[in-house]
Structure formats: structure tokens, C-alpha cells
Design a protein that fits this description.
Chains A, B: Keywords: DNA-binding, Transcription, Transcription regulation. Two copies of one chain form a homodimer. By secondary structure, the first copy, chain A, is mostly helical. Chain A is about 75% helix and about 0% strand. Chain A has helices at about 10-25, 30-35, 40-45, 50-75, 80-95, 100-105, 115-135, 140-160, 170-185. Chain A binds a DNA duplex through α3.
Chain lengths: ~190, ~190
DNA sequence: ACCTGAACACCGTTCAAGT
DNA sequence: ACCTGAACACCGTTCAAGT
């Protein structure tokens, strides 16, 4: 007499995603997720291999979310406007959901190995603007430079590394403007 | 009959530093550190408040190390040469000791709250070159932009986020050149 | 004044037994 | 075919008892 599944990977990942948002990576425990889903911890192992696997799935979800966010920010402006809008959208996300942002952009000991395909997902819209901004030949380098800067800035901002004061909104603008100017292909 | 201390904070932090290097943040356990130091885990609590405290001290050590490293890289070249040399020195460190680098530049759930003074320590040599490069008025913004980019690039490189291939050495050069050009004060 | 063993709470994970 | 309780290993941390 087979027992019908009382949950599913989808529901487990969704629960994990929401636990992560409000308890952080450290609070993302199998026990908490199980109780959120209405099941006992051992049952989760019928649907995911282990905690690392669950974390990987949750991070992949966040990557998809990030891609949507960035794609939506790139409107019909020129390349520089779109790049600026995407940078601001990413900062908004980092502020709105710091745990999700950190899970994606800092290699917590927990996240262990993240599928590199996950990054490719989120990187698509960035590559597209980078190509328009820097030209096809430098699209990859330009995309990496901008992404590295934004990820680094926001990670450090969230970590409280920018303690020397000054207006961080302005500092972020300063950075994005400097990068756009530097990467822009000769007209 | 008071018992003479069989260890010290210094020795504990040094042990923690070396355990971190070869086992990562996740392998940095009180048990491992205790055994490295020749003592039982409960004894550590006579010298550090708890694991978070130990992690904080280890990270502060890494920050000092990083400052030395950066200061040594800034030779007698002009501002652009020094900035380049410092960026390369940081990358060398990230490759040589990835766990130490990650402990400093990614807010592991473990690191919890890092003293912001720790960042100030490591930032000093960067601020100094930034002032020479971008002028005193923009020193802080320029230092933040360069640091954010380098931290982001190296974190992503270590995480395997740059899977799309291409020469990463060249990509790093591309980034630092672009940033130097963008931040350089009008001559 | 520091060290220790014993103990506790909490975690991930396995597994035999239920349905 | 999935769920469960019981169990195990491992972790951080506390504390009374040793010296």
C-alpha cells in the first residue's frame, strides 16, 4: 500500500527559500524546513539528497529571481542607462533580502559547490548590456568587471565594511559612473 | 594552588588561523583548535568567549596580514603601478590561501559580526594609493570602487563563477586597467 | 586560576519498522 | 512509496569537581 507523497521538492525548496530569507543561511536547518513543510526531518531525504543539495536548489532559485530582476530593469534606455538601472535593481534586492543576496554572492561554507550554470543564468542580462556598452569583443570582460564590482560593493556594504562614512548611495553612483565611462567602447 | 595557564589567546588564535587555512571555516571547530593546542575544548572558554569570538580574532589577524602584504606591494612606482601591484598581490594571496581570503571578504554566517576596525586596518594602504591616483577629494570613493571590484572578482573566481572561460589573468588585468583609467584624476 | 569529564541542546543523517 | 521514531556522530557550550 504505497503512501502518497505528503510534500515535494518544489514545496521543500520554496520553504527553504523563505526560511533563508528570514533566518539566514545558518538558520536554514533541515528541522526548520521540515516543520515548515509539515513533515519530520528524515522525510526530507526522500526528496533531496542532503542539506547541501537543498541549499544548491535554493540558490538556483535565487539566481532565476535575480535574472528576472535584472532583465526587468533593462528597459529601452541606451546601454549606459540600462547598466545603471540594473546596478540599482541589484542593490535594491541586496537591501530587500540580504540573506538571499549573500547566499548567491558569497561562498558560504554552507553553499559548498554551486552549479556554475546557476551563475550563467543570472549573468545573461548582464552580458547583453555589456555587449551593447563595450562592444562584442569585450562583452565578457566588461560584464565580469561590472558584476565583480557590484557584488563586491554590496557584499561589503552589507557586511558593514564601509564604516568610514560618506554617502553610500553617492559612492555607488560614483562607481557605476566610473565603470561605465571606462568600459564604454569608443564611439 | 592556582594552575599555570597551559595555553594563551595568542596560541589559540594562531592555531585557529592555521586550522582555517587547511580546513576552511567549516572545519574551524573548537574541538580541532583545542586538540591543536593540546587542551580540551572546554578550556578554550577560559581564553575566548566562544567560537564567534575566536573567528573574529582570526579574521583580525588576517586583516593585519593583508595590510602588510598590500603595503609591501606598493613600492616606489607611480600611483598606477602601485595600484596594479597591490591588486596582483591580493590575487596571489587569494590563490595561496583561499580560506583566509574568503573569511575576510565574505560574510560567512560564521563570521557574524566583524569589527569594522578590522577593515580599516587592511584599507589603509589602499586609501593611500587611491589618494595619489584619484586625488584627495575622491580618495575614499576610488578606494571603495577598487576594493569592491577586487574583492568581488576574486570571490567569484574562487567560487568558480567565471565558468564561461577566457583567460582570467587577462580579465583581471582588463579590470584593473579600466579602473585605473577611470579613477585617475585629470592630470 | 586554569583544566577536565560529564552533561545538555541542537544539528545532519541513517535505518528499520510502520502504513 | 513515503513517513516516522529511535539512534548515532558531531558540534558548541556549561558547570561542578579536581589540582
Amino acid at each position: 500500500m504505497p503512501a502518497p507523497s505528503r510534500t515535494s521538492v518544489e514545496r521543500i525548496v520554496a520553504a527553504g527559500r523563505s526560511v533563508l530569507s528570514d533566518a539566514g543561511m545558518e538558520g536554514l536547518t533541515m528541522q526548520r524546513v521540515a516543520s515548515e513543510v509539515g513533515v519530520r526531518p528524515p522525510s526530507l531525504y526522500k526528496h533531496v539528497a542532503n542539506r547541501a543539495d537543498l541549499v544548491r536548489l535554493v540558490v538556483a532559485d535565487i539566481a532565476r529571481e535575480t535574472r528576472e530582476l535584472l532583465a526587468a530593469a533593462a528597459g529601452e534606455g541606451d546601454a549606459a542607462d540600462d547598466a545603471r538601472a540594473m546596478a540599482l535593481a541589484l542593490r535594491g534586492f541586496a537591501h530587500r533580502d540580504r540573506h538571499a543576496f549573500e547566499a548567491m554572492f558569497s561562498p558560504a561554507a554552507d553553499a559548498a559547490t554551486i552549479d556554475s550554470a546557476v551563475y550563467a543564468t543570472a549573468a545573461e542580462p548582464i552580458l547583453e548590456v555589456a555587449a551593447r556598452l563595450a562592444g562584442a569583443d569585450h562583452a565578457l570582460d566588461a560584464a565580469r568587471t561590472v558584476t565583480a564590482w557590484a557584488a563586491g560593493f554590496l557584499t561589503m556594504e552589507l557586511a558593514g565594511a564601509f564604516h568610514l562614512g560618506g554617502d553610500l548611495d553617492r559612492a555607488y553612483d560614483y562607481g557605476i559612473d566610473a565603470l561605465i565611462a571606462a568600459l564604454r567602447k569608443p564611439q
